[in-house]
Each structure stands twice: as structure tokens, then as C-alpha cells.
Amino acid sequence: MQERVFHVASPKAKLYSEADQAIRERLKDFPKALRAYEMLVQDPEARSGWNMANYLTMRKLGYNDHGRVHALLTGAASVAILALLSEAGVRLDTVESGAGELEDAYVVVLLSTMLHDLGNQVHRFGHEAFGVVLALPILNRILDKLYPDPEQRTAIRALILHGIYSHDLSPEPLTVEAGITAVADGTDITKGRGRKAFQLGSIDIHSISALAVDEVRILKGEKVPVEIQVTMNNSAGIFQVEETLTKKVLKSPLRPYVTVVAMTDGEGGQDQRIVHRVRLHETEDRFVLD
Fold first, then answer.
1. What local confidence, expressed as pLDDT, does residue 7 receive?
2. What is the pLDDT of residues 220-244, one digit of tens each?
3. 12-186 belongs to CATH 1.10.3210
4. 193: left (phi over 0), alpha (psi -120 to 50) or beta
5. Most CB atoms within 10 A, among 33, 114, 211, 224?
6. Is residue 251 scored above 70 in pLDDT?
7. pTM of the model
8. Alpha carbon 120 to its chain's center
């Protein structure tokens, strides 16, 4: 009997390049945050940590991507969300706490988001706490060059570590910046992330539903500052939308400022018409037809 082989291309290089370009474009007016980003992506400890986190989660557990590409994609999402929130006048905890200004909030959000999964290099269980420990030397190297005042440096680092520790909602994030990290993590649900896990033999609702999500767009909302639009090629993608993305919106300080819209692209067979377009209810924790 001939074995059936599925070939699914993985556009990792393209994803990485697009995310890198998006981050640099967003940070062009914030030189301190841009410098933090450049130091991070060149840091050998961070790069190796991403690689090993990806190895354990994908090769040993059959999970989706948790490495450098995931860090870049979520980093790009985080600065896009922060830009929309700041434009809408949402008060940021970096400012409210006296730790810094808007540019410093970009440093906090970018570093916490890009380092949030670093602890997976030890184990998935407890990776949030491991991530805090493993991020410390990396953060110290970067922040030492950006913040000569030790008190401000410590305050900025505390906000970053809170974002890393609470990104998976255990415990739930308390600051707006940590909420951005959690929600940005939830936006990386497209098929580009699920392909490798599927190729490696992980055939479950997580990998299948990830393959059903074509695109995630972060837009300026009509009633709230941020609208996250998810386009699916198959109704199975609603699992990713509910379990990975929407859960993080509902259980973070971003709930009043973010809505989620999920839709199928309208092309194809009957299955795609099970879910046409749904929107997160404004006040209740459920989706409604849009």
C-alpha cells in the first residue's frame, strides 16, 4: 500500500522578514525601542533560547511554533496594538506607574512579547516562571544600555517580567502592557504557524484549526480602539479564535478596548458556510452573528 504524503510549504523566511519590517516601521519614531529590538534579535542567548524552546515544544510535544518566528510575529502584533491603544488615549501602566513615557511602553511591550515563550526551553509546564528567570540576563544587558538610572531600569524591567509571567493567563495580566503581550500571543494562529506541527505528525484540533486560519489583521475599531479580524478558509478555525485569541482578550485589561471578528472567506464548499461572520459581544463573553 502506497503511503500518502502531504507536502505543505512553510513560509518561515517570508514571515520573519515581514514581521521584522513591520516592527522597524512601527518603531522608526521611537529610537530607544528600536535599539532595544535590534539588540534583542542579535543577542545570542535570546536566539539560542528561541531555538531550544521551539525544539522542545514542536519536536517533543507536537505543538505549533514557539521559537524565533513566533517571537517576531507576536512582537509585530504587540506594537500594532499598542499604537492603536495610545492613539485612542488609553492610559498605559508604564506612564501611570511613573516608570516612563510612551516610548518606554514600547520597550516594555516589545521585550515582554518577544521573550514571553523563552521558558519553553526548560519545559512547557511552568514555562512562564522559567521565562522570567531566563529573560533576566538578556534584559539586564539590553536595559543597561538604555536606562542609566537604576531605579527607572528596575521599574521597566518589572513591567516586562510581569508581561512574561502572565502572558498565558496563569496568573491573569494586571497591566495594559501585559494584556497587550497576552493578546498579541493569541493573534499568532494562522496556518503558517500550524504547518510544521502538522508535518511532524501532530494531527489534532490545534494543528487542524491553525491550518484553517488564513489571516489575522489588527485594525482600528469603530466602537473600540482595536478590532482583530480573523479570516478562515474553514469553520474549524473558530476553535483557534475562541481558545487561543478570544480567551486572552476576555481575561486581560484589554477587554474594554479590543473586539474580535471572525469570518470565512466565502470561497469553497459547504463547510465554510457553517460560520460566515461572527463578532465578540460588546459586554458578554460570547460571539454573536455579525
1. 27
2. 999 999 999 998 888 888 888 888 8
3. yes
4. alpha
5. 114
6. yes
7. 0.87
8. 15
How far is Cα 130 from Cα 35, in angstroms, rounded to an integer? 25
Please report, as a single letter, which amino acid is at residue 71. Answer: A
What are the domain boundaries of the chain? Answer: 12-186, 189-289
Chain position carrying cell 519545559? 123
pLDDT, tens only, 142-194: 999 999 999 999 999 999 999 999 999 999 999 999 999 999 999 998 765 44
**Which residues share a beta bridge with 279?**
261, 288
Tell me what pLDDT residue 191 has. Answer: 66
DSSP code string of the chain = -PPP-------HHHHHHHHHHHHHHHTTT-HHHHHHHHHHHH-HHHHHHHHHHHIIIIIIT-----SHHHHHHHHHHHHHHHHHHHHTTPPPHHHHTTS--HHHHHHHHHHHHHTTTGGGGT-STTHHHHHHHHHHHHHHHHHHHH--SHHHHHHHHHHHHHHHHHTTSSSPP-SHHHHHHHHHHHH--SHHHHHHHHHTT--SHHHHHHHTEEEEEEEE-SSSSEEEEEEESSGGGHHHIIIIIIHHHHTSTTTTTEEEEEEE-S-SSGGGGS--EEEE-SSSSSEEE-
Average the pLDDT over 204-214 and give the result.
70
